[in-house]
Design a protein that fits this description.
single chain; alpha/beta; Rossmann fold; formyl-coa transferase, domain 3
């Protein structure tokens, strides 16, 4: 199905956003805003642009990832190391609602683009700053990528099998979590600005965004001295929830940790004795005997295919599922029915499948207004909107300041 196009502008229509930085964290935050109608002007280096344009699998010279990360945005090529380009950014920021950057702390100040300058000329500006360790503290000047943040937050220590090298999540989860925290901060700041008329700075550290999702990790250590470790596919302290091998070589994920769900699960697998065992009626008792429970479930799943297991558990109303590959996702009717398997037509006429829009708003949903831009595709238009004429734009281009 074609991805929804948007002739209406979306709930963030009229919001002017300047995107600085590159790769994932800052651009993903801006992408989320642009999906819902914000006018995002992405500023890129004139020579090559955002490195994400070349990351992972490339089609006709451009990463297919780029078509998702930068859809609905406009691109202007600017050499931020030049005074002229810095002045252009200041002029753009003076008319913007939001500026997003994810450079190392101090870089913006070195270019004369720090918050003390930008908010002085535009007190209503909301400035999102995403960095590895935040704008303060003893680690602020360290380079920080998402993978380092995931380790520092405690997440990496929990992933993988006990006694083996901790594994990483297969996507840039640290960057994405920081981006989403940044978007939340922007929306809160916009709401507050409606009352005060004032902008502010939002300081998001990658490690803090991940740490914010670490649930009871710290209070458990504080109260009990417990240092939680990796547990493979199980979830310590909650039972039963695990991945169980099936007869066809696949795995079924089963979450039978609710009290009434556990009873239905045990009846389904032919273990009414466990369903009626008073010692297993509550989670605390099940945690003490989790190996016994897992063995019972595993013995049952080992006799059936994944599909047979899931069919039986669905009938018993036990939460369960299989481990999807992207091929499974692309063929799944629920993904399709929810509009999550979209298709866009690239500028060369070819089709590309891309994810749909999240979250889903009933009256003002997100939509596809334009494909991801070529480097500098909108430079002239943006500079003309600022008041520059063609002669001035040509002079800047000849000097390599814009592209």
């Amino acid at each position: 199905m074609n991805i929804p196009s948007s002739s209406s502008s979306g709930p963030l229509s009229g919001l002017k956003v300047i995107e600085l930085g590159q790769l994932i964290a800052g651009p993903f935050a801006a992408k989320t805003l642009s999906d819902f109608g914000a006018d995002v002007v992405k500023i890129e280096p004139p020579d090559g642009g955002d490195p994400l344009r070349q990351w992972r699998l490339v089609k006709d010279g451009t990463s297919v990832w780029w078509q998702v990360q930068s859809r609905n945005k406009r691109s202007i090529g600017l050499d931020l190391k030049t005074p002229e380009a810095q002045d252009i950014v200041r002029r753009l920021a003076s008319q913007a609602d939001v500026l997003i950057e994810n450079f190392r702390p101090g870089a913006m100040e070195g270019w004369g683009l720090g918050p003390e300058v930008l908010l002085a000329q535009n007190p209503k500006l909301i400035m999102l700053r995403i960095s590895g360790y935040g704008q303060s503290g003893p680690y602020r000047d360290r380079p920080g990528f998402g993978v380092v943040a995931e380790a520092m937050s405690g997440l990496r220590h929990l992933t993988g099998e006990p006694g083996r090298v901790p594994v990483r999540v297969g996507v840039s989860i640290g960057d994405t979590l920081a981006s989403l925290h940044g978007v939340i901060g922007i929306l809160m700041a916009l709401h507050e600005r409606n009352r005060s008329g004032q902008g502010q700075v939002i300081d998001v550290a990658l490690y803090e965004a991940v740490f914010n999702c670490m649930e009871s990790l710290l209070p458990e250590y504080s109260a009990f001295g417990a240092v939680r470790g990796p547990a493979g596919s199980a979830l310590p302290g909650i039972a039963p929830t695990n991945a169980y091998a099936c007869a066809d070589g696949g795995y079924a994920l089963v979450a039978g940790n609710g009290d009434s769900i556990f009873k239905r699960l045990m009846q389904c697998i032919g273990r009414p004795d466990l369903a009626q065992d008073p010692g297993l009626a509550k989670n605390a008792g099940r945690v003490q005997r989790v190996d016994e429970i897992d063995a019972a479930i595993g013995a049952w799943t080992a006799t059936l295919s994944v599909d047979q297991v899931l069919a039986a558990l669905e009938q018993a109303q036990v939460p369960s599922g299989k481990i999807y590959t992207v091929a499974d996702i692309a063929a799944d009717p629920h993904y399709a029915a929810r509009g999550m398997l979209g298709q866009v037509t690239l500028d060369d006429g070819s089709a590309l499948s891309v994810p749909g829009f999240v979250p889903k708003l009933s009256r003002t949903p997100g939509g596809h207004r334009r494909n991801a831009p070529a480097l500098g595709q909108d430079t002239d238009a943006v500079l003309r909107e600022m008041g520059l004429d063609d002669e001035q734009i040509t002079a800047l281009r000849e000097r390599g300041i814009v592209s």
